[in-house]
Amino acid sequence: MDFVFSAFEAWNLTGLLILGVVFSAIGGGLLYDFIHWRKKAIRTMAKVYGIYSKTKREEDMTDEMPDEAFAKARDLVEKDKVKKDKEEVSSGCVIAFIACFLMIFVAIGLYTGYRYVNLCAIGIETQGQVVDYKISSDSDGTSYFPVVSFQDERGRTFRVESDMGSGSKFFEIGEEVPVLYDPSDPHYMAMGSLWRNILPPLAFLLFPFVLVGVIYFLAEHSGSREDTVTGVKKGKKNTSGAMYHTLLEFSSSRGEKIQTRFIWSANWIHYEIGQRLPILYKKSNPYAIRGVGYTQLVFGLFFFVPGLFFLGMAAREMFSSFATSLFVLLFIAIVCLHMFRSLKKKLKKGPRPPFFVSLKSDFLSGLKNEELSGGSLLTMPQYKQILKKQAKQTALMLPVVLVLAVGFLSGGWYLGKDMSVFLETSVSVPGEVISIESVHNNSGEGSRYTYYPVVAFTDFNGQPYRFRDSVGSNPSFWDIGDRLTVLYTPDRPETTARINRGIFNWIIPMALGGVGVLMLFWALKLYRGVQKRQRL
Q1: Alpha-carbon distance 351 to 359, whole Å?
Q2: What is this structure's pTM?
Q3: pLDDT tens for residues 193-221?
Q4: SS3 for 432?
Q5: At how many degrees (to 10) do helices 194-220 and 66-122 cross?
Q6: Mind listing the pLDDT tens digit for each residue in 414-436?
Q7: What is the distance, to the nearest Å, from the Cα of residue 207 to the centroid of all Cα atoms in its chain?
């Protein structure tokens, strides 16, 4: 049995190790490229002199011969005619499926709302006390369902589990809460305030209408539309699927006039014609350029830091036992052998795949604008039309981003305030991990285990306690016998005890607040872009 357990543990650790290597490699590559260009490149100002547009089909046909491209276009037209009826039937089925799916939300909202309204009409209100929580864990996380104890009008005591759970313990154990129950069946009850019980049905009812409204509004403001009187298209070019290349012009240190573009294209026009922006270029090859922003640095840290964390966890657990280390090394050897054989077969077939050739020529050698083909340079009317269309889409997105920013900031502030109050009122004592409790999660995504440390400690009064920490992991972050620090409030040590993780106590408030600040800056940038583009 130990052999099987070591094999499963080694399998999990191998996945963690591979994840750490991949994340660290991606992040390290981005960080190296960012630092290398800052040290070796020359900074100058470039002018945006045009926007080059290319659709997905045009990109696919760029590397083909003209005759082949013409034949492919003719075949596509014929296939579109044949498939038109089938697509109409398919779209009808998709719409019917979406309608049925949204009706499920409406039905759930009506049912739960009716139950609560009916309970308000026939129910009796009393006071109850939260005495326990039922914990349910699956692949989506852990949910806590409060168990409330109350007495009915006859003096009988009932202990009922609420059917409304949450991702955290919303009520404190021992907290007094209002209870509304059915006198004919006291197990049919609702606890908490009016808003706590009425908001979920309203959310289920409003979600389909909000979703349909957003889809309809976006459809009305995108693509080409026909005049309702003449039946003639108004001239709006359907730019869905178009990719835009920003064409730049600058003078090198040798006085050469260089026309080039950024490596990556995008389906959004980020820079305006005539705009001057700082860039970096190499003296040996001025056609290879980079931007001076810090987006690459952020993405590099986003991958590199978690990669190091995953590698540290894997290294910490890998040498916990000889059998686990042996299995991990065996898995790594098998993966390396498979990769070596695949590489050997590819090398025997001839030259490298076109992807690597393209990557070297584009990423290292730079891009010359005269090499562009398969698309067209946007005229000024087309350019202004696309900018106005994107301004309308941005104006629709702006309220959503603002609401999300306020939500993240509010969540970070609330959790941060809660943590600050807890740290001020709590005391710390030494504790020890006495066991590891495994929770089996079986869902559509597969079956797996999550491991939670069970910690024992003694408070200042000499009373021993034990608790299961609310944070689990796979593989287990803790081992039996590990020493740690426990925080608890003196009045309720049995319900408030938690592991002191130092600065990581603030990880969730800081993450929510950081995302909220970034989204707030994004909203400000979107607002400035809308104001600027609407003046065109």
Answers
A1: 14
A2: 0.55
A3: 777 788 888 888 787 777 777 776 666 55
A4: strand
A5: 150
A6: 888 888 888 888 899 999 999 98
A7: 20
